[in-house]
Amino acid sequence: MAILLESRTADLRVAEVFLDQVDDVADSDVLRLVVTLKSRIYEVADAIADAFRARCGVSEEGITEACRGLAKSGLLPKAFVKVLRDGNHNSNSVFAQTALQSVVTAYAHELCTVWDPSTDSITQRICEALYKSIREREPQPVAGRWRALYHTHLRALVGSEKNVRRELENKLTQWLATVLRACGVDDAIHHLRKELRRTHARDVREMVRSALELRQVVGDMVISREFAVTIVSSGNSFDNL
């Protein structure tokens, strides 16, 4: 009887841990991470735009190809890519500033919401569909704990986070170089990528680190609810309720 009681007690403790809705992080800490990420996004975009301002609009060669790549990436709306392609970058630097900030913001959103930064889009869609099904059929404590366990054990399986982070930094640098080429900076994309690595690697690294830190906190440490990015369509009034 004592053994059975001990076994049942252990089972209840496991269930209590699994169904516990207490988060391991305060709302104020999450807000602080969001504010920090916002600052990192602005800093990297502003620094690059300022550094390349005088070189925008110098050459039209390669602009169409760069814009085609940006449109295909989904990081920028196609309508804005068209404005970027047809705009006069000599007289208006706002195109480059806006495009850089938009790409960094979209990339940060991708990093914050992605299930596994080291896998392809097919795996991401499978994870999203699976978690959507769990949320629809299970109570929030179960869904939240499943998400947290997935993220925690995934990091152990992926291996070196440093290598994954470096790959993500390189990918963002590639897109930033593509934006500069689309704005008429007279240099090949691979040369611009090398220049950005040399001059703005720290800014890119800090942005990626902040996005991944926010992803880890809301993915691993928040059980009682879900965090999601809400995008308001152009022309609509934002209502935070």
Summarize the structure.
This protein has 241 residues and is mainly α. It contains 9 helices and no strands.
- Mean model confidence by pLDDT: 84
Oligomer: single chain
For the sheet with most strands, the description reads:
none
User: DSSP strand (E) fraction?
Assistant: under 5%
Distance between the termini: 54 Å
Radius of gyration: 22 Å
Low-confidence stretches: none
SSE class: mainly alpha
Count the helices. How many? 9
Tally of structural domains: 1
Number of separate strands: 0
> How much helix is in the residues?
over 70%
Instruction: Tell me, briefly, the overall form.
Output: elongated
Helix and strand run: HHHHHHHHH
Characterization of this structure:
By secondary structure, the chain is mostly helical. The mean pLDDT is 84. The protein has one domain (24-221). The protein has helices at residues 2-19, 27-52, 63-73, 78-86, 94-113, 121-137, 140-158, 161-182, 189-221. It has nine helices and no strands. The longest helix is centred in the C-terminal third of the chain and has 33 residues, at 189-221. Helices cover 73% and strands 0% of the residues.
